[in-house]
Specification:
Blueprint: E1 8-10, E2 16-18, E3 28-29, E4 39-45, E5 48-54, H1 62-77, H2 85-91, E6 97-98, H3 101-116, H4 126-132, H5 138-141, E7 145-146, E8 163-165, E9 170-172, H6 182-197, E10 203-207, E11 210-214, E12 223-227, E13 238-242, E14 245-251, E15 256-259, E16 262-265, E17 268-269, E18 274-275, E19 280-287, H7 290-303, H8 305-314, E20 318-323, E21 328-330
Parallel strand pairs: 7-15
Antiparallel strand pairs: 1-2, 3-12, 4-5, 5-10, 6-9, 8-9, 10-11, 11-14, 12-13, 14-19, 15-16, 17-18, 19-20, 20-21
Length: 340
């Protein structure tokens, strides 16, 4: 998707930010030179555009099962579906609730990432998201200028307070703890779909910019994936070459809306309970799996450039930071691929 599609809003330092339609992390995108990709499936799931690519068109039937994985994860983890397991969990705080193995695993991963990031990655920020205006599907929030809502700030809870009973496969949340699994759920679905496609060797899964690429790619030397700039009319930042590796971007340039004349976004800083404001506009991260890439990108953005880069280095990941003034900063392990 071209970054000059969709709405636009003002950026810091006089730079114009391109509002990237509805995708949460749609900055990485495949170059047009993927001429040798023979199998492709496109569909909409988890409020984003999903694309599955294979080199071997004779195996394209396997993509239907990979698509099913996305819909199953969405059915269980969407906070916008009143009948989803997550919505039921959020509504049944204080009571133990039996859940599917899939939701249990995602919640266990969420707790692990919470510990790994010292609480910077925090899915239990749903009340703060709603207080900021993101209280319904983004299709219904985008383009509206919401009035300021007065009232007390929502009480803060953490994912660590969630009780997971593995033997009974049950979950219990204290009263007031409500969870949003949008980012980690999408990363989980990408990794699950990639695991399903693993026997096919050469494939790429792209869910709105959460990407896992396996094998040698369409030209035999890995998958070249373009990283778009979040600034309006700016050229791509470059391309990366992925081989059995994930890439994800977290940014405040998408999923934005106006409240009382001010831009808001969906990345809540759990330390303040409000949308984060710092020196970083977006972070793209390369990591071993899509969940790592997604969580690490969000964590690095919330921490800011210096602390975020130190976090990535400590966990063996690489990141490219786009700063609010228009500059970029690459962590020590980041590398670009050759132009396609």
């Amino acid at each position: 998707m071209s970054i000059d599609q969709g709405l636009r809003g003002p950026g810091a330092g006089g730079c114009a930010v391109a509002e990237l339609d509805r995708d949460e992390t749609a900055l990485p995108r495949p170059p047009a030179s993927w001429s040798n990709v023979l199998g492709c499936r496109r569909f909409r799931a988890m409020n984003t555009d999903v694309r599955l690519f294979l080199r071997d068109y004779q195996q394209a039937g396997a993509l239907a099962n990979a698509e099913r994985i996305f819909h199953e994860v969405e059915d269980r983890c969407s906070r916008f579906r009143t009948d989803s397991e997550l919505s039921l969990l959020n509504a049944c705080a204080g009571h133990a609730l039996p859940v599917s193995g899939e939701l249990f695993d995602i919640l266990a991963h969420a707790q692990r990432y919470g510990r790994l990031t010292d609480g910077i990655f925090e899915p239990a920020v749903l009340p703060a998201l709603e207080a900021a205006g993101y209280d319904r599907s983004f299709d219904l929030v985008a383009g509206r200028d919401l009035e300021r809502v007065s009232g007390p700030a929502p009480a803060r809870h953490t994912i660590a307070e969630l009780r997971l009973d593995r033997r009974r496969q049950a979950v219990q949340a204290p009263a007031g703890l409500r969870i949003d699994l949008g980012g980690i759920g999408k990363g989980y679905a990408v990794d699950a779909a990639a695991a399903h496609l693993r026997p096919l060797r050469d494939y790429l899964v792209d869910a709105g910019g959460d990407i896992f690429a396996a094998g040698d790619g369409p030209d035999g030397d890995g998958w070249l994936v373009g990283v778009a700039s979040p600034f309006e009319a700016a050229p791509d930042l470059g391309v990366v070459r992925l081989h059995d590796e994930a890439l994800a971007t977290s940014t405040t340039a998408v999923r934005r809306w106006r409240r009382n004349g001010r831009w808001q976004h969906h990345l809540i800083d759990p330390r303040t309970g409000a949308p984060v404001e710092n020196d970083v506009l977006s972070v793209s991260v390369r990591a071993a799996c899509a969940m790592d890439a997604d969580v690490f990108a969000k964590t690095a953005l919330l921490l800011g450039r210096d602390d975020g880069a130190r976090f990535l280095a400590a966990h063996g990941a690489a990141g490219l930071f786009v700063l609010v003034g228009g500059g970029t900063y690459a962590s020590a392990r980041w590398r670009m691929g050759e132009a396609a």
